[in-house]
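Minimal example, chain plus KG4.
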Amino acid sequence: MNSMKILAFESSCDETAAAVVEMDEERGIRQILSSKIASQVETHALYGGVVPEIASRAHTEAISGLCREALAEAKLTPKELDAVAVTYTPGLIGPLLVGVSFAKAYAFANGLPLIPVNHIMGHVAACYLTYKDLKPPFCALVVSGSHTSLLKVKSFTDYELLGMTRDDAAGEAFDKVARVMGLPYPGGAEMDRLASIGDPQAIKFPSIAVAGESLDFSFSGLKTAVVNHLNTLKQRGEGYKMEDVAASFTHTVTGGIYKRMKQAYEKEPFDTFVLAGGVSANSHLRKMAESFGKKHKMRICYAPPILCTDNAAMIGAQGYYEAEAGHFASIDLNAEATCDI
Ligand code: KG4
Ligand code: ZN
């Protein structure tokens, strides 16, 4: 496969993003030429979570400006591009449609091939940009505001789902607990900071690892337990230490993930473990994964925080491998809210 310069779009949730990447596996080039992100966090913070209709409108307003900026920063004209990549699944349907429609129009108008990208595989690809030598197979955990999936990544474009959340996503649980404690949305990063100064053993919460052999997760029991714990204290007129709640919650989450990593490893040993998605920015999760890696002589990979949360560079990177595998879309590409991972 020749070198490719790919213009990529991401709009599956509350970040509109456009980026240009240059990829050439033969020459070892995995480069971000530009990456532009317009976050809607402040708008949605008013409501304590993402409002899909508002997100769709904000994507519509932002996408063409971001596209122009991404090309300008990459110092490229449309003629110098080789393809257009776009997130088409999974995500909020309205927001996804904005990106898909824009990418289709852009590709069609400029005579460029269109590459459909799965957002979850995109999160994994953030690590290809971070570690230039990283190649499948490996085991990956994608933990974000909307997803919690444990995957066996067999090749750049093929995966097997080992386990997933049966209810809420990991990031959703972080954000909900933060919200109940009065922290602004999204509260994951602040929970991370508070957990560093709290006592992880202060409160015992229920595990996120569902019983039995399954590698699935469940966050709703933990989330409800934390909310109930805080409400009970409130009713009794008792105060609490936010840092202890954050630390105990985080300890429960990382403990459950450790258990799943161990089970997955015992089923089929792997030498590389990739942490991806917004929650993979969590310092405690990273520390836990590092210690697991040391114990099992395993390479642990995670991207810098700006590539952990939603961005279009990761979509462009995954788009390259999809193109290499011949996965292109025609003008009738549609957005899909859900997928099998
Ligand atoms: O990947 P992402 O941008 O969006 C989805 O694809 O859903 O992830 C956003 C999520 C939010 O829930 C946010 O609170 C969480 O990632 N997050 C964190 C941290 N930084 C972001 N959660 C825990 N610790 C962090 N340091
Ligand atoms: Zn995401």
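The domain at 136-305 is CATH 3.30.420.40 (Nucleotidyltransferase; domain 5). The chain has two domains: 4-127+308-324, 136-305.
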